[in-house]
Amino acid sequence: MIGKLTLNADKSITVETEDELISYQFASFGARFGARLIDVLIIMIPSYFIPIIPSWLYWSLLQSGKDQSTIGQDRFGIKILSLDGSKISFGQATGRYFGNILNILTFFIGYIMFFFNDKNQCLHDYLSGCIVVKEIERSHKIRITE
């Protein structure tokens, strides 16, 4: 569209092309700000969640896996259990992960819960129905058959 641009007295613009005469007004600050906000959200929301995927998978897959712990947790001999003592599900591990993000967003208030309950649960443990334990002893049952 090659044409002639004219600034009019009312601060509108007229563009004259070979086939058309088009009038424009300058975009307001509110319209430009609103458009920018929408575009930033379109870019920022996916770019926020994409980096979360590897860390979510790390914690959720390892904590719900056969060892029931991440590499760091394993190093300290701790594991995650359901409230009934069984292995946690991937869904529970996912709940723990996103509950932990909630702890961060509330300025770590969810971690304070640790000191005020008999199971040492933080908010993310409580929300996902989990406990964090350290094994102190394991013994084998002896079965006597007749």
From TrEMBL:
<keyword id="KW-0472">Membrane</keyword>
<dbReference type="Pfam" id="PF06271">
    <property type="entry name" value="RDD"/>
</dbReference>
<keyword id="KW-1003">Cell membrane</keyword>
<dbReference type="InterPro" id="IPR010432">
    <property type="entry name" value="RDD"/>
</dbReference>
<dbReference type="InterPro" id="IPR051791">
    <property type="entry name" value="Pra-immunoreactive"/>
</dbReference>
<feature type="domain" description="RDD">
    <location>
        <begin position="50"/>
        <end position="129"/>
    </location>
</feature>
<feature type="transmembrane region" description="Helical">
    <location>
        <begin position="37"/>
        <end position="59"/>
    </location>
</feature>
<keyword id="KW-0812">Transmembrane</keyword>
<protein>
    <submittedName>
        <fullName>RDD family protein</fullName>
    </submittedName>
</protein>
<keyword id="KW-1133">Transmembrane helix</keyword>
<dbReference type="GO" id="GO:0005886">
    <property type="term" value="C:plasma membrane"/>
</dbReference>
<feature type="transmembrane region" description="Helical">
    <location>
        <begin position="97"/>
        <end position="116"/>
    </location>
</feature>
